[in-house]
Amino acid sequence: MTAPTPGDTYVQSFARGLEVIRSFNANAPEQTLSEVAAQTGLTRAGARRILLTLQTLGYVTSDERHFRLTPKILDLGFAYLTSMPMWDLAEPLMDQLVEKVHESCSTAVLDDLEIVYVLRVHTHKIMSTNLSVGSRLPAFWTSLGRVLLGALPEDELKERLARLPRKQYTPYTTMDDATLLERIREAREQGWCLLNQELEEGLTSIAAPIKDRAGNVIAALNISGQSNRTSVELMKDELLPQLLQTSQAISRLMVTRRR
């Protein structure tokens, strides 16, 4: 896949600024000017101009050698969350669901080959990774992701599958294309998806779609549990009906809110 060629509406300096912001992460929470330039492919002079602009705006701070993001950078992400009334509608219902099932509950949206968590209601820690709002996971190997991928047109689904990096997360991870497509189509047809230890051993999850007033899948809701105490049978027989009830209730509230 070749990258799209920027047109007349493309603002290169803005795009470079975003690349500088994205260069900071858990592995590089603070960086020197040279490190930022190397991470982004910018010249030192170019990286310096962007960093100093971000510093002037309050998004970056520096001790004269190392640069790091400030909490103000969260404003950019929260602008997305606050612009979507869905999250306000979903959270109280997710709280109620967690109280009933005593398992963690999440809402996520699809971003190319990944899911991004937009709401999390914890009961207790179930994964070695500390997931929170903004966390990303591979869409093809999460129950949330397979529900969201199932809403894509078939040609778009296959195009994304063709670009998918392969990683054997556990002995149960589905790796071949035919089986992945089959399981995503199954999720689409039945209206929910159960994933058993494909992303992390000991983790089982079940997800259902959240739809807008036109019936389009715009997010997914899931329940996650430890497989040694929350069996696949328990997920299907006891948790799935409550999950579906909650996802449908959120979808109905969204329709009411937008009228």
What does this structure look like?
The protein is an alpha+beta fold and 259 residues long. Helices cover 45% and strands 20% of the residues. It has nine helices and nine strands. β7 (193-196) and β8 form a beta hairpin. The protein is globular.
Instruction: Please tally the helical runs, counting DSSP H or I stretches of 4 or more residues.
Output: 9
Give a short account of the largest sheet.
Answer: 6 strands, antiparallel
Give the mean pLDDT.
Answer: 87
Calculate the terminal CA-CA distance, rounded to whole Å: 41 Å
Structural class: alpha+beta
H/E series, N to C? HEHHEEHHEEEHHHEEEH
Strand order of the largest sheet: 6-5-4-9-8-7
Low-pLDDT segments, ≥5 res: 125-129
Rough outline: globular
Give a quick precis of the structure.
With 259 residues, the protein is of the alpha+beta class.
Features:
259 residues, alpha+beta, 9 helices
Q: Topology, please?
A:
Elements: H1 12-22, E1 30-32, H2 33-40, H3 44-57, E2 60-62, E3 66-69, H4 74-83, H5 86-101, E4 104-111, E5 114-121, E6 136-138, H6 143-149, H7 154-162, H8 177-190, E7 193-196, E8 203-211, E9 217-226, H9 232-258
Antiparallel strand pairs: 1-3, 2-3, 4-5, 4-9, 5-6, 7-8, 8-9
